[in-house]
Amino acid sequence: MEFIYRVATLFLLCFIHPCFSALVQEQPLVLKYHNGALLKGNFTVNLIWYGKFTPAQRSIVVDFINSLSSTRAAVPSVSSWWKTTEKYKGGSSTLTVGKQVLFENYPLGKILKSPHLPALASKFNGVNTINVILTAKDVAVEGFCMRCGTHGSTKGVSASARGVFLWVGNSETQCPGQCAWPFHQPIYGPQTPPLVAPNGDVGIDGMIINIATLLANTVTNPFNNGYFQGPANAPLEAVSACTGIFGSGSYSGYPGRVLVEKSTGASYNANANNGRKYLLPAMWDPQTLACKTLV
Ligand SMILES: *[C@@H]1O[C@H](CO)[C@@H](O)[C@H](O)[C@H]1NC(C)=O
Description:
Its main location: secreted. Pfam families: Phi_1. Belongs to the EXORDIUM family. Keywords: Apoplast, Secreted, Signal. Helix content is 22%, strand content 21%. With 295 residues, the protein is an alpha/beta fold. It has one domain (3-292). The strands form six sheets. A six-stranded mixed beta sheet has the order 1-8-9-6-3-4. Strands 2-10 form a two-stranded antiparallel sheet. A hairpin with a 5-residue loop joins strand 13 and strand 14. 2-acetamido-2-deoxy-beta-D-glucopyranose binds next to strand 3. 2-acetamido-2-deoxy-beta-D-glucopyranose (NAG) binds at residues 41-42, 94.
């Protein structure tokens, strides 16, 4: 299991040690490879929607995932962002959205415990799948807001990757300052004006940041013995090691310079299929030993 303590932790560290973010960028950041299997090759991403999402919201997520391994959009693109995962031992990971199920009537209630997540993920079985659980804004999940999502596996350590799952919640009404930052004012630390969400939906655009984070963390550390820094029970992984960084020149509370769409004022850094745009977090690059931003 892996936890993202995104903005809150970063800001807290910056209060304790004001130059924390400068240190992160100046010293080489090393995520050690622990010799375990990574997810390389072709993977099907199944989506488990828990609670109510509109068709428009679902298509923002589907287009994002299908853009990871598609080279149709102009750079900087979602696929150029995903390409950094190829530099982690063993080649590329091609992801395609597979099956989807809608649990619109909250069959397990609106308060989920951690064991509910692998239980929901077991809806879809099969090799080379990643099951993604997405919870609606009115669903409380154990640990939500301490973390914005999590990933794990249920069936042991295998390159055929059974039982790999991740969860991300819609934080629109629960903790947008933590999990939908920088589209929402942060709760802690220095305040910069929120950015305009590229798909006009603070909750879903925030989920995209966390889905991107967890997909990259999952393929590079699926069984807790891949790439990470720190203790295995609270690892810093491919993207969680770069928390709070979206563009060049970022510092605590400032996401960095990103692109702005003139007509809407929306901030983004990645083009995608169907003319969509997304704002994606920096990812650790094993070649340069630094957090890589798209712009
Ligand atoms: C992945 O799928 C593509 C297209 O179907 C195929 O050409 C390729 O050989 C597959 N790769 C692996 C590693 O199975």
